[in-house]
Amino acid sequence: MVSVVLQSAYYHSGGWRVNPNLYEEGKVCLSLLNTWTGRGNEVWDPSSSSILQVLVSLQGLVLNSKPYFNEAGYDKQIGTAEGEKNSLSYNENTFLLNCKTIMYLMRKTPKDFEDLVREHFRRRGYYILKACDAYMKGYLIGSLTKDASLSDRSIANANSVGFKLMMAKIVPKLLLSLNEIGADYLEGLGLIYSVDLDKNILLSSLKAWQPELSGAKLKGLTEFARHVIQQIWNEQKLVKLAAFAVEAREKSLLDKVYAFNARLANSSAGFKVPEKSRPSLS
Predict the structure, then answer these.
(1) For residues 228 and 185, is the Cβ–Cβ distance under 8 A?
(2) Could you tell me the pTM of the whole model?
(3) Phi (first) and psi of residue 193, to 5 degrees
(4) 50 CB-near residues (< 8 Å, 6+ apart)
(5) 221, 259 in Cβ contact below 8 A?
(6) What is the mean pLDDT of residues 14-21?
(7) Mean pLDDT for all residues in the chain
(8) Do the beta carbons of residue 160 and residue 131 sit within 8 Å?
(9) pLDDT digits over 226-258, tens only?
(10) CA 127 to CA 82: how far, in whole Å?
(11) d(CA 121, CA 127)
(12) How many CB atoms lie within 10 A of CB 210?
């Protein structure tokens, strides 16, 4: 048998700690990698250990549904009310950081893995957004199926308002990042904005979109913009957007809504918010 000498493992974190075993500086804490204590086959044996064993260990032991309990000593909290509460909060933060990590990896893909990473997010973009939609609705993080559908573990009203507010700010940026690599996700855009969100959550989401309503991403009605206009936006949504801008006293946002509305009037979408109905914000 050929002996395999383990060199090292590095996690491209983007500066975020998404798991107790995955450090910001790239360290991967796992006994099989000799970065944590272990006994027997828990540590690397050049005569019998393999890269497959490392990958399976990472998938099963590190990337589990309740990473909070991976922290040394926290396993004593498993099954307790305090432990489960802390675990839910940890999962919320982990999902938020995962969304940021996705954008980081698409922007700064590890060398020699460019095609693999981009193709993965091109294929999975829709399901990522579908999961975002479910979690913004309050379904338990980590309870969805592979295609981001609800399962028998998908408890409703499981997520905090703070988490939903943060998601509302991140999702528009994630949408744009996925679009830049040509992800098959545009149906997911309709999902996100068809959600009957809490007023404050929707306001936060609209504010996150604010720079894009008349920004370079939509300038000149690119193919992406036309697709969004034709399949996602409609008069009712624009009126609702304007109403929220008024309620939030966001004059600049209201101006952008009507600037965007003017483009719609000249596009193949064929609808617009009547200019005469425009409210005045002094």
Answers:
(1) no
(2) 0.66
(3) -90, 0
(4) 4
(5) no
(6) 95
(7) 76
(8) no
(9) 444 444 455 556 666 666 556 656 565 566 666
(10) 32
(11) 10
(12) 17
Cβ atoms of residues 29 and 19 within 8 Å: no
Query: pLDDT tens for residues 113-158?
Result: 999 999 999 889 878 988 998 898 899 999 999 888 889 999 998 9
Report how far residue 97's alpha carbon sits from residue 92's, in angstroms, rounded to the nearest whole number: 9
- Closest by CA position to 193, among listed 220, 217, 175: 175
| Rounded CA separation 254/241 (Å) | 8
Rounded Cα gap, residues 66 and 91, in angstroms: 7
User: Helix (H, G, I), strand (E, B), or coil: what is residue 16?
Assistant: coil
Tokens (6 digits) for 119: 């193709």
Residues 165/204, Cβ–Cβ less than 8 Å = yes
Alpha helices in the chain (DSSP H): 51-57, 81-107, 114-136, 161-180, 186-194, 199-213, 223-231, 235-247, 251-265
114 burial level (CB within 10 Å; 0-12, 13-18, 19+): exposed
Whole-angstrom distance, CA of residue 174 vs CA of residue 212: 13
Instruction: Give the residue among 245, 236, 232 at the shortest CA–CA distance from 205.
Output: 245
| Amino acid code (one letter) for 182 | G
For 256, list phi and psi in degrees, rounded to 5. -70, -35
Output DSSP code: residue 140: P
Catalytic residues, by residue number, are 29
Q: How far apart, in whole angstroms, are the C-alpha atoms of residue 196 and residue 199?
A: 9
Q: Which two tokens stand for residue 105?
A: 């990896």
What one-letter code names the amino acid at 271? F
Say whether 198 sits in a helix, a strand or coil. coil
